[in-house]
Amino acid sequence: MSEKISVREAAEILGMSQQGVREHMKRNLFPVPIGYVTNPNGRYQYHIYKNMLNKHIGRDVPEPKKSEVQDITRKDRGDGE
């Protein structure tokens, strides 16, 4: 997975409040997810990933290298590790 970013950073990029980001994530209101929420011990934690946020806002996300795609395909077929 890619680099994690804070709720504050995500809010600045999205042009919304930090609480708005939290509520959208808890209620799955983003049309394209930007991360996930956990609730261990009754306290919410927000895991926001830069690549998912970029996809949500339409920024270019680098295409995987051909060798990476081949490795994934081999593993899916059971040919790889």
Protein architecture, described:
The protein has 81 residues and is α+β, with helices and mostly antiparallel strands. The chain has a three-stranded antiparallel sheet. Helix 1 crosses helix 2. The protein starts with a strand and ends with a helix. The mean pLDDT is 83.
Quick recap of the structure?
The chain has 81 residues and is of the alpha+beta class.
Uncertain ranges = none
| Tally of alpha and pi helices | 4
End-to-end span in angstroms? 19 Å
The total strand number stands at 3
How much helix, percentage-wise, in residues? Answer: 40-55%
Largest sheet: 3 strands, antiparallel
Written as H for each helix and E for each strand, in order along the chain, the element string is: EHHEEHH
Shape from CA axes? globular
List the helices and strands and how they pair.
Blueprint: E1 4-5, H1 7-14, H2 18-26, E2 35-38, E3 45-49, H3 50-57, H4 66-77
Antiparallel strand pairs: 1-3, 2-3
Helix pairs in contact: 1-2
List keywords for this structure.
alpha+beta, 14% strand, three-stranded antiparallel sheet, 81 residues, 3 strands, 46% helix
